[in-house]
Design goal:
The chain is an alpha/beta fold. The protein is 41% helix and 16% strand. The longest helix has 22 residues. Keywords: Aminotransferase, Pyridoxal phosphate, Transferase.
């Protein structure tokens, strides 16, 4: 353990982590094994992986079927480029499969290595789409405050969380951020979008990006009429609607794709994470038939965009097996059922504790919001770090979870593997109750 900790500090720069904290304390935990909804560290301690690591291990850890699928493909042909119209069966089959399960009319797929690349690619593709139609000024991208779309150059700029802009400065121009539906009515949020469009000029706007559920922003679920109104606005102004399904795709929300919960079809959809359940890096962009037709007709010469691993044959093979497991084991349905069970259990927790405010779930994607006074929505002072304290107690209790504290909020986010069962849900709920109770007592607030 000590040797690994020192090597970690000396050689490994961690993503989205405090470098100083790593150097002072070492790695928080060094994981060694995964099985189902559980992770085990090198000391032998086992944890419930209550966020599917990074919202992505949808079919659970330790699935030998994916390892076997990868091994078979690697033995046959581990890699072959898809540049210069070279192709191979796994990518072709996966593109066909994705087209068959996405909403109607989304049938052409561009592959990437992950979510940041997917949203970066979507920005470039929608700008290219307008440019080849003689509208090069339609470049601006609108997204939501508190949104997260990745950390590549364009996707960092699409992201609506200012903390991600500070590291190296805002990366690109022509990106606008409007009010989310969090703590706003649908009408207020839509008006914010319309105002931004009018001020910028519709002729300059290429697309509106939104997560069906804002994940890293705090699992923010939209009102029922929100996306219907968004679709209407985009159509009225001649703007493309891009749904970022990186977190919400492949069963996470109790539907195969999150946007299906609101019966709206986007023009473009991005995906990653759950497509392989994290067993291999893979992402992509799916475009509508009308967009594909324009590309086929007017995109002359080489499309100068692509990644070495676009359409990676081993990644595609793993994805095909992963999607087959999701379908065969009815994990989309289980996500809905167990999400309802988790919501039911946490509503009981709310009744027993004083600092639990809003509880929200759609499928197995949800959050508990902690407040000083839930009745008046009064937040805690930021310096109390209430949600991070709950996360620490959960860690001690053997639960891996994450908090969101942007804009003075204290939100605990949940996204366990889609294979979770009722017994495991009950265990998780009890741990959540115990962790919040301990922190509530530390704050000097008594439970009923």
């Amino acid at each position: 353990m000590r040797s690994l900790t020192e090597l970690d500090k000396k050689h490994f720069i961690h993503p989205t982590s405090s470098i100083q904290e790593q150097q002072q304390k070492g790695a928080k935990v060094i994981m060694e094994e995964g099985d189902g909804i559980y992770l085990t560290d090198i000391t032998g301690k086992t944890y419930i992986d209550a966020v599917s690591s990074l919202w992505n291990v949808n079919i659970g850890h330790g699935r030998v079927e994916l390892a076997e699928a990868a091994a078979q493909q690697m033995k046959k042909m581990a890699f072959s480029s898809a540049f210069s119209t070279f192709s191979h069966e796994p990518a072709i089959r996966l593109a066909e499969k994705i087209a068959s399960i996405t909403p109607e009319g989304l049938n052409a797929v561009f592959f990437t290595s992950g979510g940041s690349e997917s949203n970066d690619s979507a920005v470039k593709l929608v700008r290219h789409y307008w440019k080849i139609q003689g509208k090069p000024n339609k470049r601006k991208i609108i997204s939501l405050k508190r949104s997260y779309h990745g950390v590549a150059a364009a996707s960092t700029s699409v992201t609506g969380i200012p903390e991600f802009w500070g590291m190296a400065g805002h990366m690109m121009t022509d990106f606008l951020h409007v009010d989310t539906h969090y703590n706003h009515t649908t009408e207020q949020a839509v008006q914010s979008l319309c105002q931004a469009i009018e001020e910028a000029g519709p002729e300059t706007i290429a697309a509106f990006f939104a997560e069906p559920v804002q994940g890293a922003g705090g699992v923010i679920i939209p009102p029922e009429d929100y996306f219907t109104r968004i679709r209407e606005v985009c159509d009225a102004y001649g703007i493309l609607f891009v749904a970022d399904e990186v977190i919400t795709g492949f069963g996470r929300t109790g539907k195969m794709f999150g946007i299906e919960n609101w019966d709206v079809i986007p023009d473009v959809m991005t995906f990653a994470k759950g497509v392989t359940s994290g067993y291999f890096p893979l992402g992509g962009v799916v475009v509508s038939d009308p967009i594909h037709e324009v590309l086929k007709e007017k995109s002359v010469g080489t499309l100068f965009h692509g990644f070495t691993y676009s359409g990676h044959p081993t990644a595609a093979t793993v994805a095909l097996k992963n999607i087959a497991i999701i379908e065969e084991e009815r994990l989309v349905e289980n996500s809905k059922q167990m999400g309802d069970a988790l919501l039911h259990g946490l509503k009981k927790v709310k009744k027993r504790l004083e600092i639990v405010g809003n509880i929200r779930f759609v499928g197995l994607l949800g959050a508990v919001e902690l407040m000083q006074n839930p009745a008046t929505n009064k937040p805690f002072s930021s310096n109390l770090q209430v949600a991070p304290k709950v996360i620490e107690v959960l860690h001690e209790l053997g639960v891996v979870c994450r908090s969101v504290t942007y804009d003075h909020t204290n939100i605990i986010c949940f996204a366990p593997p889609l294979i979770i069962n009722q017994r495991q849900v009950d265990t998780l709920v009890e741990a959540i109750y115990e962790a919040i109770l301990q922190v509530q007592q530390q704050l000097g607030i008594k439970a009923e």
